[in-house]
User: Which sequence fits this backbone?
C-alpha cells in the first residue's frame, strides 16, 4: 500500500474534519472512501449510453416484465 500526501487550505481541512466527525469516520478514511467511489464509478460515457438504452427501451421492458 502507498501513501499519498495532499495540501488543503485551513478552511478545507476544517470542513473535512467537520464532515468526517458527522459521519463518524476519520478524515483519512473519508478521503479514501471518496477516492474509491470515484475510481469505481462507471465512466460518464458508459452511464449516458446505459441511460439512453434504458429510456429508449422502457416500454419494451415494461411489456416483457408482465
Assistant:
Amino acid at each position: 500500500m502507498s501513501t499519498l500526501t495532499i495540501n488543503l487550505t485551513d478552511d478545507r481541512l476544517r470542513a473535512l474534519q467537520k464532515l468526517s466527525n458527522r459521519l463518524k469516520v476519520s478524515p483519512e478514511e473519508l478521503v479514501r472512501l471518496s477516492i474509491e467511489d470515484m475510481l469505481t464509478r462507471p465512466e460518464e460515457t458508459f452511464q449516458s449510453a446505459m441511460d439512453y438504452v434504458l429510456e429508449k427501451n422502457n416500454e419494451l421492458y415494461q411489456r416483457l416484465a408482465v
In short: The two ends are 50 Å apart (CA to CA). Residues 45 and 51 are 10 Å apart (CA to CA).
